TrEMBL record, chain A:
Transmembrane segments: 21-41, 47-67, 79-102, 150-170, 182-209, 215-232, 337-359
Protein's organism: Arthrobacter bussei
Gene designation: pstA
Pfam families: BPD_transp_1
A GO molecular-function descriptor: phosphate transmembrane transporter activity
SUPFAM superfamilies linked to this entry: MetI-like (SSF161098)
Membrane topology (UniProt): Multi-pass membrane protein
Protein name (record): Phosphate transport system permease protein PstA
One Gene Ontology term, aspect cellular component: plasma membrane
From TrEMBL, chain B:
UniProt function note: Part of the binding-protein-dependent transport system for phosphate; probably responsible for the translocation of the substrate across the membrane.
PANTHER family referenced in this protein's UniProt entry, alphabetically: PHOSPHATE TRANSPORT SYSTEM PERMEASE PROTEIN PST, PHOSPHATE TRANSPORT SYSTEM PERMEASE PROTEIN PSTC
Protein name: Phosphate transport system permease protein
Gene: pstC
CDD domains: TM_PBP2
Origin superkingdom: Bacteria
ABC transmembrane type-1 domain mapped to chain residues: 71-296
GO MF terms, alphabetically ordered: phosphate transmembrane transporter activity
From TrEMBL, chain C:
PBP domain location: 41-339
Species whose genome carries this gene: Arthrobacter bussei
Protein name: Phosphate-binding protein
Record-level GO cellular component terms: ATP-binding cassette (ABC) transporter complex
Transport found in the keyword field: yes
Lineage: Bacteria, Bacillati, Actinomycetota, Actinomycetes, Micrococcales
Alphabetized InterPro entries for the sequence: ABC_phos-bd_PstS, PBP_domain, Phosphate-bind_PstS
Gene Ontology BP terms: phosphate ion transmembrane transport
Signal peptide: 1-28
Length: 368, 310, 373
């Protein structure tokens, strides 16, 4: 009796021609079996099984839907599967990277690591740690400070310049030759290899302040060269998609153009701009090569970006991996490198949160 | 409010307008100036290579013979990366913006943004410690079964440190960039367009195809170009993952090299002419990016009608 | 409401930032600073200031040790060293960007001429500071020792010998059970002093087999598996059965190491054997009397010498502008080549110490550094 009722409900006008919800599980089961069968023919492996099953499933489900519900529904299903599939595929390496960093980084995150520098830590100290089983000494405190300071200065330089340039491109300069030139050259700037940006900044400061000028600020300038195009490019896209109706409504109320831009256009796009800025910081915070030639390499704490050498987390990681403090027992160095990598990711995470938060404050209330 | 005060506020407004437009113009010009000086710097540093004796250039056959293989290598690596990353990146962005449950979507978006920030050294280390040995098994299979295709000609690399691995690592690095920007743009699609499409009885895919994608096309291209910029200019990850060598068609054998990695590997010990040579290679990379971007801009301007602010 | 929320977040963030930045320490090892008395007695004069060096990454580990040792004896002095690479170091030194360079090769003649511009008419001094034997390391299961002569090594690296049980190897290693594993040659992908010294050895000791140019980059015609940096090649060899490479002895860990044929016997790699090879080296011709650029005799037949060795130099100016800098350079330079300094470096980096005779000569050279007139 109950079965009869469900049957009748399914026959109702709105759901006619749709597959019952259990159909998808039938297809899953069938594909699993078929996948196992085919993969055992070519030599069984779990990976092969998963891949073949996925392919069989997508094909079968699409065909079944096509037969039962029509071609348009089938296309929709196919794309849905592909989108989900792409997401899963993208997750595999990304999760693997994160897992690798977590697995190898967490053991190194000690109090020592977070709050001391590498000052005075030599290979002998590391050898002792390995042989005597004592805790690994030395940390990344100086590198954390360096990263924060250099990135902060790079952001202070690039964000205003990048933001204003994007405003000019979208709001003031539309159609002008200068706009075309700037857009074009900003694109070209995205292709500057990072080491070239570093060399350029080093050469510039050598010209201005004499040879061997290496400070955190030089590094910040080098990073700005890399950062500006990302800021401009992403901000420009975000400003462009602010609907013209909003601008026109503001003008119609007699609001000045600059007020319209600062109060209407930028707030509307702020979430995207914040994303873009975060992305640009993310792009440069992990740079190694330009830092090496501009800020040198320090193992002790330096609070002054305008004088003295500095380390950042990426250069710290780089040298800990490539030239371990103790070549005979590189494990402590490797441990420090992974812990530093984890720390860097955590820092970016925090920064990301802040950016989102700021964006939320300024963003207008929307339906989304 | 008297008439006078209204006038005063307008005057102030006008000044504000002038200052604001002036400052933004100045920012734009500053960028041009910086880029110009970078270009001058590169050219001055690269110039000696043009007049150099071909025999003294690495390889002994002149700069063109030196640079051509690594130009091809660069393009191939970036192409592999983009072929993988663009569809996946866009699909992931779509998943986050239009497919995933709203609450999960925010979390996913957050994680993806985060991944854009992992330093390239880490991707490189992950590439050669974790990924390469995994792919090496696949390469052995490819060489055995599909070896007659030049792309998969054996003998496969034992360590898996090949061009294809480098391409995959680059793709993993580029996906977050493409996803992050595309997602923002997908989310900005006018609600009315989407709802109109759904009201007409469109399926979700038809809605995406007819309302979201056309709106987002220039943005997607921009995002892809930014990703490409990273793929072309990436040094450390490629330097760690690839086992470089002479140019070859096979993607699963040791060999090939990219410009950025060539610079990174040889710069520390470079001296004299070799240094000029590497900077000239940097200039060439610059030109490649320029050409690719020109093509992208050309495509975008052809689809300009969908942009909001024109 | 918004302002309140923002204020709260700002407070949290700034507190977190303060917490993070306030309690960092430069005292990583927990040592108490050395007593003042020790400072002045060790260096003779109290020195202060910052000494900047740029150069070879091979010296990095030893340099960390020298830095730590020197700074603990001289509280007011600081040494900073950026391991950018030998080329970058020499370039910076010659343009006045660094007070000394660390380099895996001594300055070439034209560089010596260039050095006169920054260092005055007497130019620069090349002083050997870091000696590291280069191991020929392989991964071959239970086999941890092999006897190899130079032509065989050259044939392996030119891929003329492709399996481990090749008669050329087997003849030199009676009683060792060699598998038929194919040989995977692993070399450095970056330009390096290690490659240059290894190739220099091959071309001097096996000139008939090794006909390639001596250069910091591996010959392009011989491309094989490769990796970046010493740690990269060691990692690759460790994970690949049947692989062989050349790398600084301190970094090869548990890999098998070849004994190299010198004269009639096979010499095991060791610090002493490396130091001996450097001792029998001849000074480069046409250099100032005190300069210590060394021409290593790779084909030496001296018993007990291990000729596959990397000598890394410190390059100083003969004159500096101020007395303060001169004192600082002299104090640091003397410490590096002193018995203490070399022992510190050995404990950290696992390199070979300078012999007493070399150290004495180096001290004479450093004593000659003076203020520009």
């Amino acid at each position: 009796m109950a079965a009869n009722q469900t049957l009748q409900r399914r026959q109702s006008q709105l759901t006619r021609g749709r597959l019952p919800s259990y159909a998808i599980w039938v297809v899953v089961a069938a594909s699993l079996i078929l996948g196992a069968a085919i993969s055992s023919l070519v030599g069984f492996s779990v990976v092969g099984w998963a891949i073949i099953t996925a392919i069989v499933f997508v094909l079968a489900a699409t065909i079944v839907t096509a037969v039962a519900e029509g071609e348009r529904k089938a296309k929709d299903k196919l794309v849905t599967f592909l989108v989900y599939g792409a997401f899963l595929i993208a997750l595999i390496p990304l999760v693997s990277v994160l897992w690798t960093v977590l697995e190898r980084g967490v053991p190194g995150l000690s109090y020592n690591f977070l709050f001391t520098s590498m000052n005075g830590v030599t290979g002998a100290v590391d050898n002792q740690a390995v042989e005597g089983g004592t805790p690994v000494l030395g940390g990344a405190y100086h590198a954390v400070l360096g990263t924060l300071q250099i990135t902060l200065w790079a952001t202070l330089i690039s964000v205003p310049i990048g933001l204003l340039t994007a405003v000019y491109l979208v709001e003031y300069g539309a159609g002008k030759n200068l706009t075309k030139a700037i857009t074009f050259f900003v694109d070209v700037m995205t292709g500057i290899p990072s080491i070239v940006a570093g060399l350029f900044a080093a050469a510039l400061f050598t010209l201005l302040f004499g040879p061997g000028t290496r400070t955190g600020f030089v590094a910040a300038v080098a990073l700005s060269v890399l950062m500006i195009p990302v800021v401009v490019r992403s901000t420009e896209e975000m400003l462009k998609i602010v609907p013209n109706e909003l601008r026109e409504a503001a003008y119609a109320l007699g609001v000045r153009k600059w007020r319209t831009i600062t109060k209407v256009v930028i707030p509307t796009a702020i979430s995207g701009i914040a994303s873009g800025v975060t992305l640009s910081i993310a792009r440069v915070i992990g740079e190694t090569a330009p830092i090496l030639v501009t800020a040198g390499f320090a193992s002790s704490i330096n609070w002054n970006v305008f004088s003295g050498w500095m380390s950042t987390l990426p250069t710290f990681i780089y040298y800990q991996i490539l030239t371990p403090t103790s070549p005979t027992s590189p494990d402590p160095s490797t441990q420090r490198a992974w812990a530093a990598a984890l720390l860097l990711i955590l820092m970016v995470m925090l920064l990301n949160l802040v950016a989102r938060f700021v964006a939320q404050i300024f963003a207008p209330k929307t339906s989304r | 409010m008297s008439i006078n005060s209204l006038k005063a506020s307008t005057d102030r407004g006008r000044a504000g307008d002038k200052i604001f437009s002036g400052v933004s113009l100045a920012a734009g010009v500053l960028i041009l100036a910086v880029l110009f000086s970078v270009a001058v710097f590169l050219m001055v540093q690269a110039a000696p290579i043009l007049s150099a004796d071909p025999a003294e250039v690495t390889g002994g056959e002149g700069f063109a013979a030196y640079i051509l293989p690594i130009v091809i290598g660069t393009v191939v690596a970036a192409a592999i990366a983009l072929i993988i990353a663009t569809p996946v990146g866009i699909a992931v962005a779509l998943f986050i913006s239009h497919y995933a449950p709203r609450r999960l979507a925010r979390a996913f978006g957050y994680v993806i943004d985060l991944l854009a920030a992992i330093p390239s050294v880490i991707y490189g280390a992950w590439g050669y410690i974790i990924l390469a040995p995994q792919l090496a098994k696949g390469y052995a299979w490819l060489a055995e079964n599909l070896g007659w295709i030049p792309l998969f000609a054996g003998p496969a690399s034992q360590t898996g440190k090949t061009m294809f691995t480098a391409g995959v690592v680059l793709a993993v690095m580029v996906i977050p960039i493409i996803t992050s920007l595309s997602r923002e743009i997908f989310l900005q699609t006018p609600n009315l367009h989407e709802e109109a499409a759904l009201a007409m009885g469109a399926t979700r895919w038809e809605m995406v195809r007819m309302a979201v994608l056309p709106f987002a096309r220039p943005g997607i291209i921009s995002a892809t170009m930014l990703g490409l910029g990273r793929a072309l200019g990436e040094t450390m990850a490629v330097a760690l993952v690839l086992s470089p060598g002479a140019l070859g068609a096979s993607l699963i054998r040791t060999g090939n090299q990219t410009i950025a990695a060539e610079i990174a590997l040889n710069f520390p010990e470079a001296f004299g002419l070799r240094l000029n040579e590497l900077i000239a290679a940097g200039l060439v990379l610059f030109v490649i990016t320029l050409i690719v971007n020109m093509i992208a801009r050309f495509i975008i301007t052809r689809h300009k009608e969908f942009s909001g602010a024109n | 409401m918004k302002a309140l929320r923002f204020g709260r977040a700002a407070a949290v963030i700034s507190v977190a930032a303060l917490a993070l930045t306030a309690c960092g320490s430069d005292n990583a090892t927990g040592d108490t600073p050395a007593a003042e008395g020790a400072a002045s007695s060790a260096a003779g004069v109290a020195v202060s200031g910052t000494l900047t060096g740029i150069g070879a990454s091979s010296q990095n580990s030893a340099m960390e040790a020298w830095k730590a040792g020197f700074e603990s004896m001289n509280q007011d002095a600081m040494v900073q060293y950026s391991p950018d690479g030998s080329g970058a170091g020499r370039k910076a030194f010659l343009s006045g960007g660094a007070q000394f360079a660390g380099s895996d090769a001594y300055l070439k003649d034209d560089e010596m001429t260039q050095a006169m511009e920054v260092c005055g008419p007497d130019g620069a001094l090349n002083i050997p500071a870091y000696i590291s034997p280069i191991a020929i390391a392989f991964n071959l299961g239970d086999v941890t020792e092999l006897n190899l002569d130079a032509p065989t090594i050259a044939k392996i690296f030119t891929k003329a010998i492709t399996t481990w049980n090749d008669p050329a190897i087997a003849d030199q290693n009676e009683g060792v059970e060699l598998p038929d594993t194919p040989i995977t040659v692993v070399h450095r992908s970056d330009e390096s002093g290690t490659t240059e010294n290894f190739v220099d050895y091959l071309s001097a000791a096996a000139p008939e087999v090794w006909t390639y140019e001596v250069d910091g980059a591996w010959p392009a015609d011989l491309q094989s598996e490769n990796a970046k940096g010493t740690s990269g090649v060691v990692q690759t060899v460790t994970s690949t059965d049947g692989a062989i490479t050349y790398a600084d002895a301190s970094a090869v860990g548990d890999l098998g190491k070849a004994k190299v044929k010198v004269g009639e016997e096979y010499t095991e790699i060791s610090s002493d054997a490396a130091a001996k090879a450097v001792e029998v080296a001849t000074p480069v011709e046409g250099r100032p009397e005190l300069d210590m650029s060394l021409e290593l005799e790779r084909d030496t037949t001296e018993s007990g010498a291990y000729p596959v060795v990397l000598v890394s130099y410190h390059v100083y100016c003969t004159t500096y502008d101020s007395q303060e800098t001169v004192d600082l350079v002299k104090a640091f330079g003397s410490y590096v080549i002193s018995e203490d300094g070399q022992a510190e470096a050995e404990a950290s980096a696992g390199n070979a110490p300078l012999s007493a005779t070399l150290s004495e000569k180096a001290q004479m050279a450093i004593d000659s550094i003076k203020v520009a007139s």
